[in-house]
């Protein structure tokens, strides 16, 4: 530390005297306390010595004195008493014998301390057996005056010595304090007193010897004082800096005030200019400022020239509010009331601002103008509420808006008219195109030259493409016109996806793309909604994905977005690995007639309507659409749909518990497809393993040889590089695995050559890609030797499996039916029950045949051409031969009045259409003769082709469960009926429309009735319902326009259903049709039958496929039954009718 330049003088302080006085007082007190303690200690010691003397006396003198007293030896006693009396401080000694004083010496007074000592005599052993007895006492008196004097003398000496000692110590301490503390404190005080601005930075340094170790209190005091000096220096510096800054700020404020004054002047000038500009704007816009104030006489508007000019008011200082309201009321009382209400709400504070447009009649010239008023609540200088705002003449704008509104309404009306026209004309547009496509399809089924077949195929492809574009345009128009509605029906999600696979899978397979389904396990499979529209969106997305993807895969992902107690929102995503989209291209999607670019339009084609229709349909389902894409990496199109849970949900398919944890090997080179099957098997509680190639699968199977845990099944993809699925299956069989695993081939739809090769190899099963969990479960249950506990929609269940049929051997039935499909259905059902069936296509033919042959019963359709069923029945009842013959009506009209009409005509019973097999056979059994009570036949074995038929799980417009139940569960037969319906219904809309145009309502009603029954028979419930509505409308006498609209509806659902059937069952290629000379075979049969030659049966059996293709299913079945019964006459007639139709 630097030595201080300040000299500190030393002098006595008051604090020193206080410390000295306190020290000496403390020394005296301590000396007194010490002296008192010495006196007490001396007294205690003297008493202790006296007690000790008494104890010695008792031990040494009391026994001889007691003996002298016992012996009454006074001389001895005197000697003892004299000896004791000579002891220091003893002034009195006396001996008592218990009765009196025997001897004493000296005198006792009030200051004498006496002590009585008992005299105990111990009797001899002979006399008292060692007993002691007190015989007197020895009394000794002690004078303590001398001892007290000695004690006081000792205390006095100690007091003096203590005072001297304590005073010396206190003086020494005061000297130390003075030297070590007080003088430094005085120096510190003098240093602080001497501090000034000039020496503030000089630090205090005490004159103390150097020390080692931690600082003591004086060091801390000096350090704190020095720090305080430093802090004061900094504070003073900061204060000086603040003063300088404040002075600078004050100078800046003065400058700013000067500038502000300049700016105020400049701003005032600008405001004046702005005011002038605002006045000019008000003039140009026809506006005025207005204020509404409340006075004692009511609300008033202070006048201004501009306001008076705008409103056409006479000059005045102010104007009443009711004048303004009255001018509004003359043109629009409602606007006047509304204006008055708004003013009231502003005044009461319910509103803070308001805006209104209203008509106004100017009082000065009665001109009608439109005013746009803005108003806000404010207060004046006194705090009273006032309303201020602006008024603008918007008469010209109002006229422009009115013109624009009229133009908009005209445009919307034109758009609506266009949409309604397109929706109304949908049948006029669709039906011819559909007829072209249908006729091309029929043409392809005939014998054509290769060039003709190529032309027909191109015509059909072009027609289908054109029909697709027209369908999109009409669908969009129907949506825009508000005529598109959604159904609410229970359906299976797997069925919708299967339908998508049927429509998109072939296209994907043709391009070598994998179509893969990824369905989250929590997604419910049984739903309620519009499966057709849901499928339409998926097909649109899927077709786009396939169109823009050259290689890779297309994945369809279904996830649960959210769920409530009764509804779910599902998210469907179609992901491709195609060309992708740029951000600007994405912005143009989902717009009408929009595509990503003109290049994609030229390269890939399309109208751009598919996505906008998908968007509208998704929005109708309470969902949204979107797309995520990266150029060159593919796209992900998604949409959401709000669906209800199925109202009558059936238990889902489950795996046989015995098959759980079975070891399954999946062989597929595509990772995504492999993982999809892997996930499905895991959900089925199996133990799947995967192989990415045939070689890897063979190695894994070889390694499993000899293991207890063998593979239960191997799922093999057909299209793999290096080694296809069929070759892999052969190699697996050569391994000689025991037990041998079931081999299931995975392939795409339409691979006919693969299907034939798989059949020849007798593989255990086949699965068509994309693979659904329900189809996988069904195949595994079958190939591993277990029947499924429940079946998914689209596959036969307990209600649709072949029923137990009654048998009517040898009984002949006449079937009267004009519809080809109904003919085939009824003929095959009756033939299955052992009945011989003859066919009549109308009532007249039925009357003719009944007069020629004997029949056990007649099944009579009601509405037929030439002669209806009721007329035919009356004629049959009039003939004696058929008067009692059972005649059962087959009709879709089963109301009570209809039944009464049938019975009145002479019919025995009736069967409702669509025909339910159980009802048919129950009615037949009840109406045939008692001896013809049928015997029960066990369920017939399904045709072998049923076992190979991969029946789709979903067909648009078809309720497969209903259709199967009405056709006794045969998939191959059902498929044939569906194709037959599709082939023969194409011309029905044209025929219906032609009948309406010709006002031939009877024909229209008959055609609608026929369509209702045939559609219902195959489960086409929408077509059947639409036909029933048309039939009823014709009966009720509806207008031609209404009937035409209904034909349009029939056409729409019929096209949808027919397209769904063709998608599920593609037209058999010409190359796969039976070959041969059909005319030659028929001629040979005619010759043999005419000659009653039994060889006709052999010729028939040898050409069954050719004859069925040529004759058609109904005629073929009829001919087969006739030949089996050797009814050559009827067989001959059947063949001749066929030849007549060909001519």
Describe the structure.
The protein is of the alpha/beta class and 1143 residues long. It folds into eight domains: 16-167, Beta-Lactamase (2-Layer Sandwich); 286-393, PAS domain (Beta-Lactamase, 2-Layer Sandwich); 404-476, Helix Hairpins; 485-645, 2-Layer Sandwich (Heat Shock Protein 90), CATH 3.30.565.10; 657-783, Response regulator (Rossmann fold), CATH 3.40.50; 803-941, 3-Layer(aba) Sandwich (Rossmann fold); 944-1056, Four Helix Bundle (Hemerythrin (Met), subunit A); 1074-1142, no CATH class. The protein contains 39 helices and 29 strands. The strands form six sheets. Strands 11, 12, 13, 14, 15, 16 and 17 form a seven-stranded mixed sheet that branches. The chain has a six-stranded antiparallel sheet with strand order 7-6-5-10-9-8, sandwiched between helices. A five-stranded parallel sheet has the order 19-18-20-21-22, sandwiched between helices. Strand 8 (353-361) and strand 9 form a beta hairpin. Helix 13 runs parallel beside helix 14, helix 14 runs antiparallel to helix 17 and helix 23 packs antiparallel against helix 30. The longest helix has 69 residues, at 217-285. The radius of gyration is 63 Å and the shape is elongated. The protein starts with 13 loop residues before the first helix and ends with a helix. The relative contact order is 0.04.
